[in-house]
Amino acid sequence: MPVETHRPQQRPPVPPADSQRHREAKRATWVSAALNLALTVAQLIAGWLAHSQSLIAHGLHSFSDLLSDFLVLYANRKSSHPADHEHPYGHARVETAATLILGASLALIGFGILWQATLRLQAVAELPPVELLALWVALFTAASKEILFRYLLRVAERLRSAMLTANAWHTRADAASALVVVVGIGGALMGWAFLDLLAAAIMGFMILRMGLRLAWDSLQELIDTGLDKEKVAAIQRTLLETPGVLGLHELRTRRMAHQALVEAHVRVDPRISVSEGHRLGERARQRVLDAYPEVSDVLVHIDVEEDQAPASRRPALTDLPELPDRDVLMARLQTLLGEEAAVVEKTVLHYLGSRVEAEVFLPLDAGRDAARVARLRESIAARLAEDGLFRSVSLNFRAAPVAATPPGQHGPA
Description:
Structural class: alpha/beta
Radius of gyration: 34 Å
Strand order of the largest sheet: 1-4-3-2
Distance between the termini: 29 Å
Shape: rod-shaped
Mean pLDDT: 77
Number of strands: 7
């Protein structure tokens, strides 16, 4: 069975610290919400007064931006909560869920705008003419949205927040669609009334496409899609370069909002101690955490043999050779050792494949009689030939260990 090494405490967050990160995200989102509120009111009023269907559609989209800003604020507050009993990995995926909702809402709004514009195009001659006020409001909206996009994206990249990135690109979609509205309104003012409705239809398609992409990316994260191949290969090299690691298999990764989680099976020498194996696992874990800031935690399984087959295709435990526990093996070992079993000081068992190897430590005095030791080895060899559990038994003769401790410290009890 592999030994799992895993520290209960989380790795210290990469700057900016979590508290600062969430303060910056909150401030950026409030800026976006305030601007979207102002633009929503301006576009809806101006679109109604100036008879511009594309500007009204864009105003409805700005209203959806406003709703998404409040959703981001809520998700930002929830995702900042530390890990608890019900959420041992923290609440970072609240951001992912919020991004999925944002994408789905964008897709629905885009489809609705596209549908309405298509219906109105069938009766374009009956629509009132567009007035100049709509053009000025559309120009102001396009400029404001582009400035807001650049601000939000800069904050999102610094914080490595998928949710803020989604909100920023949501704003860029609004800025791009505002330019389409400008062209449509300009064409309508020049006498081509259908251009205003065509601009509304194009804007709806752009919003629909952006929403589907954001929703798809978030869905991939929620179903634990791994990191890209280049990143996985780099993490694999880092683990294999750890001194003492002999092999690596079952390297698995997954994203959690702006973070990544890694799990790997590393192979070590099967005859080292449990504590040394644990230390090697911790060293491998720390090397990954130091090399890749986006990785928040690494779970390392220590293996002594290669088990390359994925867990889903491995044989069930009932199909594996059944090896007994230590108490049964020790009773069998006493039979193999005969009268020498009474003076055994220590026994180390190695479960390797379908058999067990035993290292037996005896007092130094027990090995002084060479003839006696030779008879014992021959007896054990003869019995091992008929034994189905032990592959080998090695005899070690040593003097009593001396525990040396630094001054002021207590030795082992």
